[in-house]
Each structure stands twice: as structure tokens, then as C-alpha cells.
Write a structure and sequence with these properties.
- This protein is α+β, with helices and mostly antiparallel strands.
- Helices cover 40% and strands 18% of the residues.
- The strands form four sheets. Strands 1-2-6-3-5-4 form a six-stranded mixed beta sheet, sandwiched between helices.
- A hairpin with a 5-residue loop joins strand 1 (28-32) and strand 2 (38-43).
- Helix 12 (343-359) crosses helix 16 and helix 25 crosses helix 31.
- The radius of gyration is 27 Å and the shape is globular.
- 55% of the residues are buried.
């Protein structure tokens, strides 16, 4: 329910009325330049960073017939280069300056572009965004359009055609709206329409919708408002207005009779979708339906979870959302069947719950739980300035309501929702005759006829270009990037640590910026502690913790946490297991009671073990459907081998899941969930003294004992350098090029991170620019190190077009060899190094992010001042150290290639690469 919930992102409420003072006050200034650009400024000095967020009030709602996906394609064009910023320069400059959350997105009613930058680089961000608005047309040509058509079509293959249920969801949209409606198509559009876009159409779209009078810019963070206002006027003030934009007026035909379709897809588990047309965003009924969705399928306390997943066990998962848009909204319920169950069973059960809502409505307690959960969940978004956080929220309020300060009214409309309101909207909108039902079932998807891409445009021998005249007068001063201000001084959190008498480490970082507290109880045992014949045991144990204690049943835990407006979760990684908690300050003590209970007193009820066993088998089935996830587990098996605990995914294998007993789970908990092996890490609106008292009361009685010593042994992976998993008919190949590298405590860490940033860690890295921007083979290919207590993997990962699988692997090896062969040029080194230094504050923007970083120091035995000293260690990295790291850890003859795709189509390409005989693995990543 991402879409509607973002409308509540600034809420701070508990059940019932709350004093207005408890709502975080967002002080903003809004002005409008003479050319119509709306400028909204928010001053916030929590961190030395600034979020820049521009909304253009255009999306698929404005597309002409036959041009589906055009708004999204144009979003990509805005990154293709401008008069003063040759293609790729903006990304290099921004990432080199330490930008985070740097991207754009398209929704049905708007397109946005955003960056979060160090405060001394605000002018750089404004220069980039202004050049896109003012000078894109000057250099827009067929070559740029053709390149981005390739990129967007790869995105469609990855996000729609090769994603489980992607084509099913697209069919749902088609069933909801007539072809003439702008919401009929998926935002990304069809291959045919993407490929048929003409350069003249692109230019016309820019002239029509990308003027300053059809945009709003929010700048939030460590700014001086007067100086920032002057900078905006400098960079945007001289731009000409575009013609007045005529906002779409579209009548959405009502659904008067139930519509049903069945859509085959490459999935094992059927999924059922129900959808209705509902009131537009911020109109009467919108908030009520958001609460209705939460009551129906918002977590473990919801009706559909309790009925379909928990009690009857006919569904693997269930979800509901009120997707709010300007022309009309959609209310969607979906449920995925457990193995052995059919969509018809799901439909009958969902219908029974919908009928109960229409006939008798929910209880007031259900409404309170839903409201509290929404409010706390969305409060977290105000922690972040950029991305989908504060700046974006203000822009959303501005576009949909005309009031950037709509927050109090938004709170009021949520507070007004009652049980009677939920029943009323269910009766008014969620009727059987007004819906669409789509069943996604196992089968071969219909991806339509192949649409060939024309050959790349030829460069004119005469030197003439197909560029059009620009709109705005050139200004010489725009040709040079602005110089940054003085580098911001920042000190990263270290946390105050103490130990309880039983050995439990407690780490706290007081952060009173918002009345929110995040906590995690982390133990130093994860997959590394799994017995060789029980892969997945750590994850299974963690999953069981909130499924019942000595005094609380699983449903009671879910209801209690929801009533508190809190979130409780658990899971495991290679080296740790974690129980996490997010709560308001006012409910944190009660929520911590629950966390302590599930950690100290899990009951592992036999019935719950069987429920979670079935759930994990269902998850494993779903994992097999996703080529990218299959590639992950196949890579693990190839690197580490079947006798190593890292040789599997967190789910383990079906054989191990079926064989795990209650006694196995209890034994793992008793051996590893011990205070001397654990830390309670807390960040938020709490003092050290307050936490000491809470921790002592909740965990002081945890009995001291020595944790079991674990040893993972040496990796014994396959000798094969090429691993293939067959996924017949897939339009892309999921690739992993991987090797074992270094442990977390390696002194090479700074050099390795800088090297990776240049090779494949950044958008402007060598691998991504090669395969995405230059070749058009992929939507994106990136690389990363995973650092474990013992050496972890280095992985280059992405999905590429099936027909260029071999060529993509060749290019990846070429880039790896290039990194080894020569030192980084000075400018590239500076950009990669600075990206690591100045992006670090963004890692500590939220309480959950702070907690995760401090927990990392505990799990890997890093010094307490690790994060505070890391920036200087990054600054000291040299080109010689980067090259040495590449030579030490990226040895081409030790890189293994994992390819998950259509074997018949890719094997001839792979056999030409000289990687030897391929090893064939199954969809669980194992050798059959």
C-alpha cells in the first residue's frame, strides 16, 4: 500500500485523539518564481546533507493514445545528457560528490527527479537539475533516444516479463480500464510503443510538459533559506515558461459487471487478484479505504492473514492496498496459494471476509490497530530527507492538494475513520459485481510478438546533426560546474556501550530528533552456526521466535504489536540472527516487553513449527520462480560447496526444512541465544539511563551461559567455472560473476570499497556504463563485496538480454582485467573515493540505519570508533592500493560465472568464452 500510505508519512499518533503538539512540525517556505516554478524550502540541520526533489506534473495520465510508457521513457531521456552536461557527466559529478538516493521515477500522475547531496554540494545538484529543465532539448538526438529505448525495454524485461506475476499484474490493469484510458497500460508501457516513440514526439513532450510552470522543487536539509532561494532563482529564474498545461479530464467507466481472466506465467504457485475502482487521492473514501486495506491484509494481525495463512493455511501470503491516483484509485487484494491449493479456494475465503466487512464491519479495536500501524510505519519516512522521504512527501501534498503543509488536515482525515466508515466504504466500493478477478496460474506467458530494435543511427558524414533548437538562451557561466563550498564536518555515531552483569552488551545512540525508537537484539550466530546437514536452521529458528512464547500465542503477539503501532521482525544472515523492533517513544517500553519475551521465552509450539515449515517450503517454491534469486543460491553453492554453511540460501533446502524437528530448533536457540553472544542495539528518542533501566528490567534475568563455538571450515566449491540453470523461454539471463574475497576485518576494506565503487558499485561505474548505457544489454549491472567473519563473496550481478549473454560476460571480464591492469586515473580515483566518504552520513539518516551500523561493529568485533575513523581511511586510499586490491581479490581465473536463463539459447554463447564445461544445477541451486 505504498502509494496511499505515503500520504500519511508525517503522522505521529496513537489510538484516539492526540495533542497537536505531538505532531512533528515541518516549517516550510513556499514561493513561486515569475516563470511559474514553485519553490518549497525546509531547513533541517540534523545532518550535513540536503535533499533536492523536483516533481514535473506529468505522467501516463497525460500520454497520447499509442504512446504508452512515454512519460517513463522521457524520465530516462532526462538523464541522457544536456547542453552543458555531456552524457554521464552528471552521474559522475554527483556520485563523486557523495550523492545518495539519486534517481528518478514515474507514477501515473507525476515524474520526479531527486538527489541527496552533502550540504556543500547543493549548488552542484541545482546546476544539474536546472540544465535538464532548461537545456535538454539543445542536444536531444536520435542516438540518445535509441539508447534509452534499449534501456527501458531491458527494464520491462526485468521488471515485468522476467519477474514472477509481472505479466499478471499488467493484465489486471488492462482489465480494469478501457484501452483509451491513460491508466490502462503499465507505467513502463509496451515494447511496441516504446520502440515506436519518435524523436519529434519526445521533443514535443518536453516543450509541452517540462517547463518551470509545470514543476515544483522541494529543497530540504542543511540549508540557509535565503541563500538557497537566491540559488534557485539564479539557476532556474531565466527559463521560459512552457504553454499552459491542460490537465487531463478523463471519465473512468464504472465496472458494472464482474470481469474474470486467467493469465499464465512462469510460476509454480497460483496467485489471485481482486480489484475495484475507488475514489481518487485525498477525496472522501480514500483514507477510509486505506484503513480497510490494513484491516484486511496489513500484517499478521489482519483478517486475511489470520484466516487464509494462519488458520486454514491455504495461502502463502496475502496483501491489500488502496492505490491512490488523481483520476481514480484502485483497491487491490491479492493472495498467493500454498502448494496444493487453487485460486478458487482463495476466492471463497476472501469473499467471506469481504462480506463480513460489508455486513457487520470491523471492531473499533481493529480500526485502532490499523490506524496505529499506518501512523508509525509512515513516521519513519520523515527520518529521511531524500528518496521517498520528507522532500518527496511535501511535493506530493503540494501536487495533490495544493498545500505543502497539508499535514494537519491529513492527520484529521485519518483520525475521523471509524468502524462504521470502514463498513460504509466496503459496502459502497467493494461489491462483487464491481470488480475484476485475475488468476495468475502456472503456464507459458504470452509476451506478444517480438519487436525488433532498428540498427543504431549512423553518424552523419557531413557533421550535421538531428538536433533541434533549444528553448532557453545559453548563458556562459553555466558551462562550468559550480565549485563546492567548504567540506562539511561530520562525526558519525559511535554509540554508548555498557554490559549487564549477565554479559549482554547494550549499545545506545540517543537521537531525539523524532519521537521514534528502533531496537534490534542481535546474536553472533547465523548461517555460520548451521550444522552441515541442516542448512537454513538459523533462519528457521529466528522465524519461530514470534510464533508463540510461554505466555503469548502467535496471534496475541501480532495483535499486541499492532495495537502499540509497532513493528516486530526477525531473521538471520550469514553471521548473525536479529529480532528488530520499531516503535514510538511512548509505546517503546511495552513493545520491548514483547521483544524480550520472544527472545527469552519462545515456546516453539508444535503446531506453529508445522505452520512455519509449510510457509518456508512455500517460500522456497516462490524462490525457484525468480531467476535472480535462483542465481544467488546457485552462486552460493558453486562457491562454498554442499558441506559449507554458506553454500545455501537462508531458507536452506526442502529436504532440510522437512527434516527439521522442534528439538532441533530448541537446541539451536539454547546454544546461541545467550546474553554473552548478544547485543541490544537501540537508536532513537531515549537516553542511556532510560535504556539501562529498561534493559535491566527486561533482560537482567537472562541466564548467563557460554555460547557454542562454531567453525565454518574451508570452502569447497565446484571446480567448474561455468554454472548454468535452465529457465526455458525467459527473455533475460540472470548473471552472477563471483569469487571468494575477504573477511569484514580485512585491512584492505577501504581500498576494496573504493575499487568496487569504480568497477561496479556506482551507477557511473565502468561495468554499468558499459553494459547499460553504451551497449544497451541490461537495465543495470552492479558489483559488491559481502564481508563475513570469514572471507565472503565478491559478486557482479545483473540481468541481461538473452541474446547478448555471452557478450555481456566478455565485457564484464574485460572491465575486471582493465581494473587490474592500470591504476585508476586521478579523476576517477577522486570520484570513487569521495563517493565513499561523503555518502557515509546518509547511512545514519534513520534510527534503523544507525542501529544496523552499530550492530555491525558488534557482530564483527570492530572498534567502537570504527565509523568515526572510516572517512579518513577512505581519504587515504591511493590508486596503487586500489590496483593492488583488484589484483589480489579479482583473479579472472578464479571468477565463476552463474547464468540462469534459457539454456538452449545461451549455451552456444557461453561455450565460446573458454570457461570449460558447464555445470548444470537445478532451480534450488544444487547439483541434481
Amino acid at each position: 500500500m505504498t502509494r496511499l500510505l505515503s500520504c500519511f508519512s508525517l503522522l505521529l499518533l496513537l489510538a484516539g485523539p492526540v495533542a497537536a503538539a505531538e505532531v512533528p512540525e515541518v516549517r516550510y517556505d513556499k514561493t513561486t518564481l515569475p516563470n511559474g516554478l514553485e519553490v518549497i524550502l525546509v531547513e533541517d540541520h540534523r545532518l550535513p546533507i540536503v535533499a533536492v526533489n523536483i516533481w514535473y506534473h506529468v505522467g501516463p495520465a497525460n500520454e497520447a493514445p499509442g504512446l504508452t510508457g512515454f512519460a517513463h521513457l522521457f524520465e530516462h531521456m532526462m538523464f541522457a545528457g544536456t547542453r552543458h552536461l555531456p552524457r554521464g557527466l552528471a552521474d559522475r559529478l554527483l556520485e563523486g560528490a557523495g550523492a545518495t538516493d539519486s534517481n528518478g521515477s514515474t507514477d501515473y500522475d507525476r515524474t520526479n527527479y531527486y538527489d541527496t547531496v552533502p550540504s556543500n554540494q547543493l549548488e552542484l545538484a541545482l546546476w544539474v537539475h536546472a540544465d535538464r529543465m532548461g537545456y535538454l532539448l539543445d542536444v536531444l538526438d536520435q542516438a540518445a533516444l535509441s539508447n534509452q529505448q534499449d534501456v527501458v525495454r531491458n527494464e520491462r524485461r526485468q521488471s515485468v516479463e522476467n519477474r514472477p506475476y509481472g505479466v499478471v499484474e499488467e493484465a489486471l490493469n488492462h482489465a480494469l480500464f478501457p484501452k483509451t484510458h491513460p491508466y490502462y497500460a503499465a507505467v513502463i508501457g509496451s515494447h511496441a510503443d516504446i520502440q515506436n516513440a519518435k524523436l519529434a514526439d519526445v521533443r514535443d513532450f518536453f516543450k509541452r510538459y517540462y517547463g518551470p510552470n509545470n514543476a515544483s522543487i522541494v529543497i530540504a536539509g542543511d540549508i540557509d533559506k535565503a541563500k538557497t532561494r537566491a540559488l534557485v532563482a539564479k539557476y532556474f529564474g531565466s527559463f521560459k515558461k512552457s504553454p499552459p498545461v491542460v490537465h487531463p479530464k478523463v471519465a473512468t467507466p464504472a465496472i458494472a459487471r464482474e470481469r474474470r481472466i486467467t493469465v499464465p506465467d512462469r510460476v509454480e504457485l497460483p496467485r489471485l487478484y481482486m480489484a475495484w475502482l475507488t475514489p481518487p487521492a485525498f477525496q472522501p473514501g480514500d483514507a477510509e479505504l486505506a484503513v480497510t486495506a490494513q484491516i484486511l491484509a496489513g500484517g499478521k494481525s489482519s483478517r486475511l492473514y489470520k484466516t487464509l495463512v494462519y488458520e486454514r493455511q491455504i495461502a502463502q501470503e496475502a496483501a491489500a492496498a488502496q492505490n491512490s491516483n488523481a483520476l481514480t484509485s484502485t483497491f487491490i487484494v491479492d493472495a498467493t496459494a500454498r502448494p496444493g491449493h487453487e485460486p478458487s479456494e482463495l476466492e471463497t475465503a476472501i469473499d467471506a471476509e469481504l462480506k463480513a466487512l460489508r455486513d457487520t464491519g470491523p471492531s473499533e479495536q481493529e480500526v485502532e490497530r490499523a490506524r496505529n500501524t499506518i501512523e508509525t510505519a509512515m513516521l519513519t519516512s520523515i527520518e529521511k530527507l531524500g528518496g521517498t522521504g520528507l522532500a518527496n512527501q511535501i511535493n506530493q501534498y503540494n501536487q495533490y492538494t495544493g498545500d505543502p503543509g497539508y499535514l494537519p488536515k491529513d492527520i484529521e482525515r485519518l483520525r475521523r475513520v471509524t468502524a462504521a466508515d470502514v463498513r460504509r466504504v466496503a459496502q459502497a466500493y467493494l461489491q462483487p459485481n464491481a470488480r475484476v478477478i485475475v488468476a495468475g496460474v502456472p503456464g507459458k506467458p504470452d509476451l506478444g510478438p517480438d519487436v525488433p530494435a532498428p540498427p543504431p543511427p549512423q553518424v552523419s558524414k557531413t557533421g550535421k546533426t538531428d538536433r533541434a533548437a533549444g528553448i532557453n538562451r545559453d548563458e556562459a557561466w553555466r558551462r562550468t560546474p559550480p565549485k563546492p563550498g567548504p567540506a562539511p564536518r561530520f562525526t558519525l555515531p559511535q554509540g554508548d556501550a555498557f554490559k549487564l552483569p549477565n554479559g549482554l552488551t547494550v549499545i545506545v545512540h540517543p537521537n531525539p530528533a523524532l519521537p521514534l525508537v528502533a531496537a534490534e537484539l542481535v546474536v553472533k550466530s547465523g548461517s555460520d552456526a548451521n550444522p552441515s546437514d541442516q542448512p537454513g536452521l538459523a533462519g528457521f529458528t529466528a522465524q519461530m521466535l514470534d510464533e508463540g512464547t510461554a505466555t503469548r500465542s502467535a496471534p496475541r503477539i501480532a495483535d499486541e504489536i499492532a495495537q502499540l503501532g509497532a513493528f516486530l521482525g526477525s531473521g538471520s544472515t550469514a553471521d548473525a540472527s536479529t529480532v528488530s523492533l520499531l516503535a514510538l517513544r511512548s509505546t517503546f517500553p511495552q513493545a520491548l516487553d514483547v521483544l524480550a519475551d520472544v527472545v527469552l521465552h519462545p515456546a516453539f509450539p508444535t503446531a506453529e513449527v508445522e505452520r512455519q515449515r509449510a510457509s518456508r517450503i512455500g517460500e522456497l517454491t516462490q524462490q525457484r520462480d525468480d531467476p535472480a534469486l535462483v542465481a544467488v543460491v546457485a552462486a552460493a553453492g558453486a562457491l562454498y560447496g554442499p558441506d559449507h554453511p554458506y553454500g545455501y540460501g537462508q531458507l536452506g533446502t526442502e529436504q532440510a526444512i522437512r527434516a527439521t524437528t522442534r528439538e532441533d530448533l530448541v537446541r539451536f536457540w539454547r546454544r546461541h541465544y545467550l546474553p554473552g553472544n548478544a547485543a541490544l542495539v537501540v537508536s532513537g528518542d531515549i537516553t542511556a539511563d532510560e535504556l539501562r533501566a529498561l534493559a535491566t528490567a527486561r533482560f537482567g534475568g537472562w541466564e548467563r551461559a557460554d555460547a557454542a563455538v562454531t567453525s565454518v571450515g574451508d570452502p569447497a566449491g565446484t571446480k567448474a567455472r561455468l554454472v548454468v540453470v535452465d529457465k526455458p523461454g525467459t527473455p533475460q539471463t540472470a548473471l552472477r560473476v563471483t569469487t571468494i574475497a575477504a573477511a569484514r576485518r580485512t585491512p584492505d576494506y577501504p581500498a576494496m570499497q573504493v575499487m568496487n565503487a569504480a568497477l561496479g558499485g556506482l551507477f557511473s561505474s565502468r561495468i554499468n556504463l558499459n553494459l547499460r548505457e553504451d551497449k544497451g544489454y541490461s537495465y543495470g549491472v552492479f558489483s559488491a563485496f559481502r564481508y563475513d567473519r570469514t572471507p565472503g563473496p565478491f559478486t557482479i550481478a545483473g540481468s541481461v538480454r538473452t541474446d547478448v549473454t555471452g557478450a555481456s560476460i566478455s565485457e564484464i571480464f574485460r572491465e575486471v582485467n582493465g581494473m587490474r591492469a592500470k591504476p585508476l586515473p586521478a579523476a576517477e580515483l577522486a570520484g570513487a573515493r569521495d563517493s565513499q566518504v561523503y555518502s557515509l552520513p546518509g547511512q545514519f539518516e534513520t534510527n534503523s540505519g544507525i542501529g544496523a551500523s552499530l550492530a555491525e561493529t558488534f557482530v564483527f568485533d570492530l572498534p567502537a570508533d570504527y565509523w568515526r575513523t572510516l572517512p579518513d581511511r577512505f581519504r587515504a586510499v591511493t590508486a596503487a592500493q586500489v590496483q593492488a586490491a583488484a589484483q589480489k581479490y579479482l583473479k579472472p581465473d578464479q571468477l565463476k560465472v552463474i547464468a540462469v536463463g534459457d539454456r538452449a539459447a545461451i549455451l552456444p554463447q557461453l561455450q565460446k568464452l573458454g570457461l570449460g564445461q558447464p555445470e548444470v544445477r537445478d532451480a534450488d541451486g544444487q547439483v541434481p
